[in-house]
Design goal:
By secondary structure, this protein is α/β, with parallel strands linked by helices. It contains five helices and seven strands.
Amino acid sequence: MRVLAGIYKSKKIETINNADTRPMMSKVREAIFNSIQFMVEEKDVLDLYSGSGSLGIEALSRGANYVTFVELSKECILILKKNVENMLSNLSIVNSPVNSFIKNSINKYDLIFYDPPFELDANQVDEEVLIIENILNDNGLLIIHRHKASEDVKFSKNYELHREKNYGQSKILILRRI
């Protein structure tokens, strides 16, 4: 897997292939960034369930101001650290359960990538999407990646659906905080 565009274009991104992680396909990542291409530069970004960091790294490459990566898996953290080696210092890596991080975060973000494991319980997904609302700036975007067969994500009236599209087995929702 490689960075698609920006200052790190073609940089290799190491991934983990095991039962617990599934790297996002490049065509899905490309579709997401084509949809938000003018909404990344100079933004503060949060990459939840970041895995190898492909979404956050792509955002950095395209001019994001700062990216915070949140991942629980120690194996993923090691790969993520390797992937951001020699990059600018405008990033941080947090080894934490996503639920704890979003409940305790004092920071707010302009763009949040939410890519939970496909098998994560739908109720937990809905709960986390509701909590994320508190750390997303007004007019900020929440990009959700789910399996296309997953239950619909429930979100509050403080979000408007900006875009919803299926790509293969993936479903992408882009919500705007209003």
